[in-house]
Design goal:
The structure holds five protein chains of five kinds. By secondary structure, chain C is an alpha/beta fold. Chain C has helices at residues 33-49, 77-89, 102-115, 159-172, 186-201, 220-223, 241-251, 266-269, 278-281, 300-310, 317-336, 343-351; strands at 19-26, 53-54, 57-65, 93-98, 119-121, 152-154, 177-182, 205-211, 230-234, 256-259, 284-288, 356-358, 361-363, 376-382, 385-392. The longest helix of chain C is centred in the last third of the chain and has 20 residues, at 317-336. A six-stranded mixed sheet of chain D has the order 6-7-8-3-9-10, with helices on both faces. In chain D, strands 2-1-4-5 form a four-stranded antiparallel sheet, with helices on one face. The chains are: A alpha/beta, B mainly alpha, C alpha/beta, D alpha/beta, E mainly alpha. Chains in contact: A-B, A-D, A-E, B-C, B-D, B-E, C-E, D-E. The complex binds adenosine-5'-triphosphate (ATP) (2 copies) and magnesium ion (2 copies).
Chain lengths: 277, 385, 396, 235, 356
């Protein structure tokens, strides 16, 4: 697992290019998304520093998932700019953005249901592989090596996220909900991202399992030097891992800061946390 | 019984099972015509079946692997056949001052006007033309979802069929319409003597068999590759696929191109084998025929597709005309069943599908799948491909 | 490579046995089925008349289908080639009667030619199968005869003759301008080319040249462009001929209407059988390569027998052509005498056909395999049936 | 006689046995909760009750009628409605139409006042009355699914993870509502991952483990059970 | 390995011109496509003939022709909407409808000589019989060929549909032979009833519109407002959820096939009267056109199917009249492709959300 070596935050040219938020891995600057008449995300600026876990919280329909979809290129922002490591990626295709090092999971699990766990994770490495049409057919040694390497790595990843070896070759659809979440994370990780976006990863997990995931996220940050952007409604998880929290409501940023600050913010309590938070 | 089953299961899971099946099967198939008369009608049916296997394997890449429902596969059959018609007949008879262009053509063909390329060159031409056509046809479908793809491919199939029938725009004549470009040069390969289908069709059979072996090889290689996985990912969930770094446009176009290439390959062969390229052949029903092979065999399953193609082809060219229609005769009745063959064909389609809804040999993935009827879910709006 | 011990090429002495087989190959599925059936009826009738015997030989009749469920209505290339090869393999095969479609013949002819099997088509009119006259493609007809020897004959005059007959009739009827549509089949398009050529020669202006699509629901819009004195359709009933005439007749109430033998059948002429309405029929004239009984008294017996056997009021021209195809084959066998099982001898007899008195008139087979018949009958439609008017003397 | 009696049901997906003999009862007027880890069979139990996956063995009785093999639509008719896992809103219908569908079998005068109640519970739904359900956010759809199930005005309400994807402030509201409608007389069978909440509103609970009932007790006892705490509540 | 590879800068910035072009086409492309042919020929007519009556005639004939396509397309779209099946047998059910209607004329003694009142009564009877026969048949086909495949892979029923299409076509062949059969022109289809501003209105046009409009109206009202209609829409969107609402999915699907069949039967009669010919293959061709119409409008969408049918009718007439009948199918399908390019979800199809 040597993804860490590939990221070189200190490279001078990168630093030079970085705009707006100094040193941020990814920054969204004043992005908005309008559906018909509905402003789902309104002028939101968020910066994600390197090797940090940042969370976005907010009531239902606040625009969190929409914001994710803009970061990953599934939606094109109606306004604003998204900058990844100094390069403007606004409106780029999702696959390009993924190739640039941003990987995600989905609020409703979206595994490739008729593929095994291992194959799912292998797909995650698509952007890091090179075999083309002809190469795939003729399969020269280079491609064979690549293929074996990919499979190895997929198994490593699945082990890393804690899937039992015996379920590696099960079809995704037959896995339990929790395991499906794990495979999704492994699939995202396999692409060697610099930034991992997790959309409600603990939904449908019980508190005990959520706790395990919390620890796991910290491990990712520390061992793989990843940044993580997390959407989550489970406050225990959010408060437990985040170094920075942004709160959205009705598409607008209503608060941000470290967990303690956010938690104490009356607007956040009123709009989102409720009395027991 | 269960012992057999488990043995079978472990064989299926054996790494080289496919290779083993393929080698044994193709070996056996290769020598079988020697035991039949050289013009035997059954070998004839086999040649057709093999050619359809190649087509079906091509369509399987598009529909089975990548999940792009293609109802216009006939377009590639047409392009492939016309490659043979254009480059291996006297169709362009006025070219080169009526002297013709001959590259590696057979002895008889070398004396004719028109363009006469060697069969292998014709195949290359067919593959190039159809791959490009495949991509062009694929282009407008890229933003479409689900069955909208089906109708656009269907539309192209019809448009191309129509162009084939009309054959001429202004003064430029590019097909012979329903009057057929004929004859097409006999198949001849370097170092071998010409395959004359009036005396023996074994040569055609072996060439078709080689093409099947080649198609199988490519299909298996593609399926178990980076590209194959990408196709299946797209089939399952486009949004997730693109979010995993799979470029939709490029990957889909490659599926279209690869699938089309086989259609072209087989089309060029059939044009040569039939000795004629007639616009009558290029109808929607043909697309349906090939699609039925793929689905009936087991969508996405390579061996299933092979079996499906052989089954339908034999129903069409052997069972109905040679067996079924002969029944009244053998019972001493003077009743003509040919007028029912259409319906019988339909009836068999219905029966087989109802008896084996998953297909004759379902794809391994689908066999493992417990839950049914899953697939890519609701539409995505904005993925700009 | 190919196998060489099967040597049926050229001079194939067929079987020593006394049974000979005559094959017919026609599209039995789809739109051409009815006309094919008429051909078969005619062929069977002719065979029955000689009691399935010629000299010491018993004749077996086998009908093959050259269409497939997947490609109905016309000769499927694969099936046609397969039929031809099937016949090549049969040592007792002595005649191959087919195909119905000229496009199909392009496939079977080269194969049968190599095996030296005599072939007669009941219906092909396409010029290029036998000659290189205008209307044919470069390279034709030689490319269909790899052995260089002719093995193919037909009983119906090639398009050139009928084209001239149609144009002659129109000119006689006082037309200055004509609209010409064809059905885009080998038959229809080929005949249309000859009509065009003839029209040029006879100073008839072709105003609007269109190809129709048989699956179109109607031709009303297209027909609204018909502004000429005459309208002629070069096609067969099965290509939506009835609708073409109905729509043209409605759009232009004065134009005179003309059709070829492809529509000279009850399915076209009789409204009760799905044909054109009587008022359109009254404006329509047809040409058929058969003269009426008044100009061809010998034919009446056969026609009556045909009507009795198959219980119809009129004999479809294709029934007549089918009858004559078989009759010509049997006649050739008879003339080959004891050598009726020798294909070379039979071919010689076939091409030696001279002044044969037949149900369609007196003709010979010329060295190209074409009939020398140039007599076309002009038919009008009475009571839903084609009714013989007169013999056309074509201004070819 | 209990309102719902589930007796030794065995339910399969293809050849996979998901429930291996689950028995449970729900008395009229109770809130009963089902907890258990992923894949334990909670949703499958609800699906069996509402007829979507009828059990191969065992029996289900409701209101003293056998409904083991009754078709889902007829089960709704006898008074059971469900807010299913995965929400399953009708994506191309508006919010209001979805709620209307909830009352598909009803024909009484109170439909519109019930709808007002749902809107009061989830003001967001009122705001988005005319939005197509398919374009709503995850949480909004969850609200809709719950609201739709309420619209059937069932005798027995089955809720499958109603708090999934719902913001904390609303989770509270939902649980208050559950308590409220239960007070008004509706019987509720609740499946939850969020066991803390679930055990708070319910009177009794069942713990499911790999397709069997591992434990059943009053909710208070379960909450205090160290095993349960460790496995499901998080420390 | 360098993970941070980003696409080169050129790819990021689209040149302003192409961007503007793209914007222009995405805004107006559809309209350019839709109006291209009529406007072009309209201008041409004005230049050549000084008025628009020729174009008007084309368009009007197109509407009445298209009305028949619309009736069939509705059946396609209903069935597609509810079980996502491209029901290839639908066109053939319609064909059988025509055959039944024509057969009934004989039975009830309708002929060219029948008086007006008798004709109307007879045709009403025929209409009902054709509708009932097709409705019943469609329901039976669903039972036999599609219901057993409810849980099979999505494309499996496509093949049984094709199978049934072949079977029905064969029934047609055995019934009335294999080529087009002219049928009595009971309503004097091509008789010009009135001529308005140079546009000829034929009996057939009046018939097509008079039958189609009320049926379409009834159907859309039924689907949008009746309880069963609601059940149909719910089943279409999520069968499992529909069952949880108390909807009997099987009955609802049967009902859908029944409705589709009824419309096909009506279309069958109208077609026979309008075109005055029938043949076994008419269903296949019409089915293809109707399917195209359904997709053009946005598959699953009733309004879309009607609009699609009418548009195709018009394109066909214009193309027949101006470009030549031999190119008409190509023109129609080219139109379809262009419309799909500009409106991937069909003319009035709805967008749904990416589920993120
Ligand atoms: N395609 C669309 N069309 C119309 N409205 C949309 C569309 N997509 C999202 N919305 C609306 O935008 C708002 C933001 O949705 P989003 O999914 O981003 O919310 P969220 O913050 O992720 O909520 P949740 O916590 O419930 O998942 C919602 O009110 C939703 O209804
Ligand atoms: N559609 C299905 N096909 C195959 N197996 C399934 C299906 N649905 C559930 N299963 C299996 O049945 C078992 C029980 O699943 P169920 O969904 O009832 O669990 P659950 O308790 O609701 O879990 P979760 O908390 O994840 O929702 C699991 O092992 C699961 O893998
Ligand atoms: Mg969300
Ligand atoms: Mg569950």
């Amino acid at each position: 697992m040597s993804t860490s070596g590939s990221i070189d935050p200190g490279a001078p040219e990168v630093a030079e290019l970085a705009t707006e938020v100094e040193g941020a891995l990814l920054s969204a600057e004043n992005v908005s998304k309008i559906f018909g008449g509905l402003v789902a995300v309104n002028d939101v600026t968020v910066a994600i520093p390197r090797k940090k876990i940042v969370s976005i919280i907010g009531p239902n329909g606040a625009g969190k998932t929409t914001f994710f979809n803009m970061l990953t290129g599934l939606y094109k922002p109606s306004r604003g700019k998204i900058v990844l490591d100094g390069a403007d990626i606004t409106g780029h295709r999702p696959d390009k953005i993924m190739a640039g090092g941003v990987a995600r999971t989905f609020q409703n699990i979206r595994l490739f249901s008729t593929m095994t766990a291992v194959e799912n994770v292998m797909v995650g490495q698509h952007a890091r592989m090179r075999a083309g049409l002809i190469g795939s057919i003729l399969r020269p040694p280079r491609v064979g090596r690549e293929e074996r390497g990919t499979r190895e790595k997929a198994r490593d990843m699945l082990g890393f996220v804690g899937l039992e070896t015996k379920t590696f070759d099960e079809l995704a659809i037959n896995l339990s909900y929790g395991d499906q979440r794990r495979v999704e994370i492994a699939r995202a990780l396999a692409s060697e991202p610099r930034l991992l976006l997790l959309d409600e990863p603990t939904a449908g997990m019980n508190p005990q399992e959520s706790e395990v995931l919390t620890t796991f996220m910290k491990r990712l940050r520390d061992e793989l030097d990843l940044s993580i952007l997390l959407i989550e409604h489970d406050m225990k998880v959010v408060m437990g891992v985040s170094e920075h929290i942004t709160v959205l409501d009705h598409g607008e940023k209503i608060a941000e800061g470290d967990p303690a600050t956010v938690r104490a913010n009356p607007r956040v309590i009123e709009a989102y946390l409720g009395k027991q938070g | 019984m269960s012992a057999i089953n488990s043995n079978l299961e472990s064989f299926r899971n054996w790494k080289h099972a496919n290779l083993a099946i393929a080698v044994v099967l193709i070996g056996a198939l290769a020598i079988f015509p020697l035991f039949k008369p050289p013009l035997d009608g059954f070998i004839d049916d086999c040649v057709l079946a093999l050619a359809y296997v190649v087509m079906a394997l091509g369509l399987n890449i598009v529909v089975g692997f990548a999940g792009l429902l293609d109802l216009g596969f006939v377009a590639f059959y047409a392009f492939g056949s016309y490659a043979a018609g254009w480059f291996a007949s006297d169709f362009f008879s006025s070219i080169n001052g009526e002297k013709g262009i001959h590259i590696g053509a057979g002895t008889f063909a070398s004396t004719l006007p028109g363009i006469h390329l060697n069969f292998l060159l014709v195949l290359v031409a067919a593959v190039i033309i159809t791959s490009i056509a495949g991509m062009i046809i694929g282009l407008p479908t890229l933003r479409l979802r689900g069955d909208y793809i089906a109708i656009v491919t269907l539309a192209f199939g019809e448009i191309i069929g129509r162009f084939a029938v009309n054959g001429q725009i202004g003064g430029f004549k590019y097909t012979n319409g329903r009057q057929a470009i004929s004859p097409v040069d006999a198949l001849d390969l370097p170092l071998l003597k010409e395959f004359d289908s009036a005396f023996s069709i074994r040569g055609y059979y072996w060439v078709a068999l080689t093409m099947v072996a080649f198609s199988l090889f490519v299909n298996f290689r593609l399926r178990d590759s980076r590209l194959g996985r990408a196709w299946i990912a797209i089939r399952e969930d486009e949004v997730a696929a693109v979010s995993m770094g799979i470029p939709l446009v490029k990957t889909k176009l490659m599926a279209y191109a690869a699938g089309a290439a086989f259609g072209g390959l087989s089309g060029a062969f059939l044009g040569t084998y039939f000795n004629s390229v007639n616009a009558n052949q290029f109808q929607f029903a043909f697309s349906i025929f090939i699609l039925s092979m793929v689905i009936l065999g087991g969508l996405g399953s390579i061996w299933g597709t092979v079996l499906g193609a052989i089954t339908l082809s034999f129903i069409n060219s052997y069972f109905i005309p040679d067996v079924f229609n002969g029944i009244p005769g053998s019972l001493g009745l003077d009743f003509d069943l040919t007028q029912l063959s259409f319906g019988i064909f339909g009836f068999l389609l219905v029966m087989v599908m109802i008896l084996r809804p998953e297909g004759l040999l379902p794809e391994k993935r689908r066999r493992l799948e417990l839950k049914e009827g899953i697939g890519a879910d609701e539409a995505i709006v904005e993925v700009r491909a | 490579g190919s196998d060489s011990n099967n040597n049926s090429s050229g001079s194939g002495a067929s079987s020593g046995s006394s049974e000979l087989t005559i094959y017919s190959s026609l599209p039995l599925q789809g739109t051409s089925r009815e006309q094919s059936q008429a051909v078969i009826n005619g062929e069977k009738l002719a065979l029955a008349e000689v009691g399935n015997k010629v000299g010491k030989f018993t004749i077996k009749y086998v009908s093959l289908d050259d269409s497939t469920a997947q490609n109905p209505g016309t000769a499927d290339e694969g099936q046609t080639a397969q039929n031809a090869r099937k016949v090549v393999q049969d040592k007792s095969a002595i005649f191959y009667l087919g195909e119905f479609n000229s496009g199909g013949t392009k496939v079977s002819l080269p194969i049968l030619n190599k095996a030296g099997i005599p072939q007669i088509s009941p219906s092909n009119t396409y010029i290029g199968l036998t000659t290189n006259e205008p209307g044919s493609e470069p390279g034709e007809p030689n490319k269909y005869y790899p052995t260089g020897k002719r093995t193919y004959a037909r009983v119906v005059p090639r398009d050139k003759i009928q084209g001239a007959a149609l144009v002659t009739t129109m000119v006689e009827d006082g037309c200055k301008t004509a609209t010409l549509w064809d059905d885009k089949t080998t038959y229809g398009a080929g005949l249309a080319r000859n009509i065009e050529a003839s029209a040029k020669a006879q100073n008839l202006t072709i105003q609007d040249r269109q190809g129709t699509d048989k699956s179109a629901a109607n031709y009303r819009s297209l027909a609204s462009n018909v502004k000429s004195d005459c309208f002629v359709w070069s096609g067969v009933t099965g290509e939506n001929g009835v609708q073409v005439f109905k729509d043209v007749a409605a759009a232009n109430t004065t134009a005179k209407l003309y059709g070829p033998d492809g529509v000279a059948e009850e399915a076209f002429t009789n409204p009760k059988k799905g044909g054109i309405p009587a008022d359109v029929g009254a404006r329509t004239k047809l040409t058929v390569a058969t003269l009426g009984v008044k100009d061809l008294p010998d034919a009446s017996g056969v026609l009556d027998k045909f009507k009795a056997t198959y219980n119809t009021q009129t004999v479809d021209p294709y029934g007549i052509y089918g009858y004559e195809t078989m009759a010509l084959a049997l006649d050739s066998l008879k003339r080959a005498g004891a050598k009726a099982n020798d294909r070379t001898a039979v071919l010689a007899a076939l091409f030696g056909t001279k002044d044969r008195k037949s149900i369609i008139g007196t003709y010979s087979i010329d060295p190209n395999g074409d009939t020398t018949l140039t007599d076309y009958g002009l038919y009008t439609i009475k009571n839903g049936l084609p009714s013989y008017e007169k013999k056309i003397v074509a201004q070819a | 006689m209990a309102l719902l009696e589930v007796e030794g049901i065995e339910t399969y997906y293809g050849n996979i046995k998901a429930l291996k003999g689950v028995s449970l009862t729900v008395e009229r007027g109770e809130v009963v909760t089902l907890i258990g880890s992923n894949g334990a069979g909670k949703s499958t139990t609800l699906r069996s009750i509402s007829g979507l996956n009828p059990p191969r063995k065992g029996s289900i009785r409701f209101d003293d009628k056998d409904i083991t093999t009754t078709a889902p639509q007829d089960i709704v008719r006898v008074g059971i409605s469900q807010s299913p896992e995965g929400r399953k809103c009708f994506p191309r219908m508006t919010v209001r139409e979805n709620l209307d569908m909830g009352a598909y079998l009803r024909n009484d005068a109170e439909i519109s006042s019930d709808m007002d109640n749902v809107f009061e519970l989830f003001p967001r739904l009122k705001e988005r009355e005319k939005q197509k359900a398919g374009t709503m956010s995850g949480g909004e759809q969850q609200m809709l699914a719950i609201g739709r199930a309420l619209m059937a005005k069932p005798t027995l309400l089955l809720l499958d993870e109603p708090s999934m994807g719902i913001a904390p402030i609303l989770v509270e509201r939902i649980y208050e509502t559950i308590a409220e409608i239960n007070r008004q007389g509706m019987t509720i069978l609740l499946v939850e991952q969020n066991a803390n909440f679930a055990l708070e509103v319910s009177s009794r609970g069942y713990v499911l483990q790999t397709g069997t009932v591992a434990l059943t007790d009053t909710s208070d006892n379960l909450r205090n059970d160290p095993e349960v705490q460790k496995a499901y509540l998080g420390s | 390995m360098n993970v941070a590879t980003l696409p080169p800068q050129e790819e990021i910035r689209t040149t302003p011109v192409s961007e503007r072009l793209r914007k222009f086409f995405s805004a107006y492309g559809l309209w350019i496509v839709l109006l291209g042919l009529p406007v072009f020929y309209g201008i041409k007519d004005l230049q050549d003939e000084g008025d628009l009556s020729r174009l008007g005639n084309n368009l009007f004939a197109g509407l009445s022709n298209g009305a028949i396509w619309a009736l069939i397309a509705l059946g396609y779209t209903l069935v597609y909407g509810i079980i996502e099946l491209i029901n290839f047998a639908h066109g053939d059910v319609f064909m059988i409808g025509s055959f039944v209607a024509v057969g009934m004329w004989g039975t009830v003694g309708l002929a060219l000589t029948t008086g007006t009142l008798g004709l109307i009564a007879g045709l009403l009877v025929t209409l009902i019989v054709a509708m009932v026969v097709c409705g019943t048949m469609n329901v039976m086909i669903e039972r036999v060929a599609y219901r057993p495949l409810r849980s099979a892979p999505k494309l499996a029923p496509l093949i049984t549909a094709v199978g049934f299409s072949f079977i029905l076509q064969n029934v047609g062949i055995v019934w009335l032979g294999s080529s087009q059969k002219g049928v009595p022109d009971l309503i004097k289809a091509q008789h010009v009833l009135v001529s308005v501003a140079g546009i000829d209105i034929h009996n057939s046009d009046v018939l097509a519109l008079a039958v189609t409009a009320p049926l379409v109206f009834l159907l859309t009202t039924f689907v949008n407002h009746s309880r069963s209609g609601k059940a149909m829409r719910a089943t279409a969107q999520d069968p499992e959820a529909a069952r949880l609402m108390g909807i009997n999915v099987d009955t609802t699907i049967s009902l859908t096939f029944l409705l589709g069949g009824l419309l096909a039967g009506a279309a069958g009669l109208v077609y026979a009267l309008y075109q005055t010919n029938v043949w076994y293959f008419q269903g296949f061709t019409a089915g293809l056109i109707a399917f195209t119409a359904a997709v053009m409008g946005g598959i699953g969408n009733l309004k879309g199917a009607v609009i699609g049918g009418l548009i195709i009718g018009c394109i066909q007439q214009i193309s027949d009249n101006r470009i030549g009948a031999q190119w008409t199918p190509a023109v129609v399908f080219a139109y379809l492709v262009l419309i799909m390019v500009f409106r991937p979800q069909g003319l009035v199809g709805e967008e749904t959300r990416e589920a993120g």
